[in-house]
Amino acid sequence: MQPPIKKCMQTAIIVAYMFKRTSKKQLLIRRTIIYIVMVFAVLVIVAGTILFILGYRIDGAKGNLEQGGLVQYDSTPNGASVKTDGKMINSNTPTKQTVIAGTHSFEISKDGYDTWKKKIDVKAGTLEWLDYARLVPKDLKTESVAQYPQVAGEVASRDNKWLMVQEKSDAATFQLVDLRAKDIKTTTISLPASLYSDAATQNVKHTFTMQEWDDGGRYVIVKHAYNDKSEYLVVDTQDVGTSENISRSLSLSLNQVKFSGTSGNVFYGLSSDGVIRKLDISNGTISRGLVTNAKSFDLYDTDIVTYVGIDPANAAHQVAGIYRDGDDEPHVLRVVNDLTTAVSIDTTRYYSSDYVAIAEGLKVTVLKGRYPSSSDADNSSLKQFADYAVSANVDTLGFSGSGDRLVTQSGTNFTSFEVEYQRKTDAVVSTSETAAHTLRWLDDAYLWAVYDGHLSIREFDGTNVHVIMSMEPGFDATLSQNGKFLYGIVKNGDRYELQRATMVLN
Length: 506
What we know:
It contains 3 helices and 40 strands. The chain is mainly beta and about 500 residues long.
């Protein structure tokens, strides 16, 4: 046993050692180690965050770190559940999920509705938008909301607020249907006899044909044919007394007229001599010839004209081109060395780029860039973005309203092209009919058409097809502004009905 004094001295020495002041060298080493650990931790966290944002995940099957893609989901109606490859994710639409790159099957479902399904090859590092799913009720309810002894024409406004129904083609009377509320309202519009030519002349056959609404949903262009002549009227549906006779006010023979803007006063028109001009009936002005030898044209936004015509330098060639308001000359984007090949052109803007699609026979070309201007020596500002072949001559082509999808139709076959993903899909309409009907955009993702006496809808790539209700071909179909109802004209015995299907359940 150690003496008490010796034991106390040993304890004092140990305590003194424990409380010995740390040297500067030791402090520097300690701080350096702490800083290295902190920097390493920050780098790991930052790298992990960046990898997560870029879509990298651990593949559970392989155990590898792989880059995936972010999928954004939404549906109409929303609040729907989502399955990826048969596994439910833990949130409802709208929602998002990162998946490993590769082909995946997706399902969006909600009680009372058919399940929406899609299979997509998701690319690494991409954002896949599946935000357009339209869920259709399993038990579709239809009802008649208006009856007519006969219907010669019907056109829906682009804002989904109005329908213009024409009972007799030889009468200047129309029914304006307000779709903004559940209980629709109808107003009769009768054109004043002073608006159109030969109104009081005996034995003159008159035919009135509605052409299109303006983007603002107030004005309608009506073509009036009488004897062997024709003229164009712009009808103000809110104040019919201010309607104008475009042809008469400008003393111009026209074959085609398109609205420019929402004033109801400014148009682009194709005259009978093949010249496209800008028209302003409020000022009584006609522009110089903007395009010559044109056969047809269309208008994007308020000032971009696309046209198909005959090459002024060679009458045996066709041309497809574009004219931008204010340019000195039109820009020919395609020359076709014969007059028999089917040629179509359309244009749009998606994000910050201009796109032009041209169909020539069995070939479709998509150009990207910016529209050429007068100062451009050539059309090099538009570069070839994609080209692909179709099964038959293109009957129609058109971009969706948002500009991210292009659909070309060849009979009952159609092809979709997704601009963002450069993804092409071929599809066909299943029908017993031999004649094709034009597919038209219902919204930015869905197409509609009438086949076999029924209105059907399908997505741009031909998937998720639904037969909605009976409908007569040759009339317009439209969703209500809130998307709750889908309207169309059906013949029931010896009368016609405006019918609607409930697309969103209460």
